[in-house]
Amino acid sequence: MRVTATGRRLIDPKGGSFWFDAGAVCLDFAHTGGEGQYAVFESLHEPADLAAWLATPPLSVVVTVPVSARELTAAKTLRQAIWVAAHARASGEALPQDVVATINRAAAGAPLQPSLALDGTTALWASPVRATQALSSLAREMIDLLSGPLASRIRECASDNCPLVFVDSSRPGARRWCAMERCGNRHKLRALRARRA
Fold it and tell me: Where in the numbering of this chain does the Zinc finger CGNR domain appear (predicted)?
């Protein structure tokens, strides 16, 4: 997958937003909503929402075939599998077999195919571009992440009540927070208050 940068602005349903860089597009995708208690963060309500998310940089996949309700369901299934797999890896636990099967099934489909534009300097995605191809590419990226050198760097935010997961690609491997402007600053504030008390 040709991606030069990662990260998205996450919206808190209680108000506010912050920039969160998960370090991999597949992990950015895992943070688009969820099941159970995370349903309040859902951003993929209808097929057009998935198309809009895919079209946003860094992925910049403009689908040429409209996203179907079935593809939206498949996207949410893959998203949940990526979420569970990332948390399992961050906790040092074995990945559930059904999660592995879901990721493998999505990856087995045809991925996005890069294509050189007529100007000879610009890369595009070869048409037709379908959502299932983007999902396959996201699943393949997750496979590479889980089986590659950064697998041991998948972490959950160190804050007590923040479930966000990310790849710590910093040179020293010392990233602890989802974002300094959010959980990192909250931790510093609590530590300062504790010292003053």
Answer: 153-196
Whether the CB-CB separation of 178 and 166 falls below 8 Å is answered with: yes
Residue from 67, 133, 78, 132 nearest 100 by CA? 78
**Which of these, 123, 107, 104, lies nearest to 115 by C-alpha position?**
123
- The length of the chain is 197
Q: For 26-78, write each residue's pLDDT tens digit.
A: 999 999 999 888 888 999 999 999 999 999 988 899 999 999 999 999 999 99
Distances (CA, A) of 140 to 104, 109, 147: 8, 10, 11
Instruction: Give the domains, in start order, of the chain with CATH numbers.
Output: 8-196 (1.10.3300.10)
Write out pLDDT tens, residues 94-153: 999 999 999 999 999 999 999 998 999 988 899 999 999 999 999 999 999 999 999 999
Does the pTM exceed 0.85?
A: yes
Question: Tokens at residue 169, please?
Answer: 């690609």
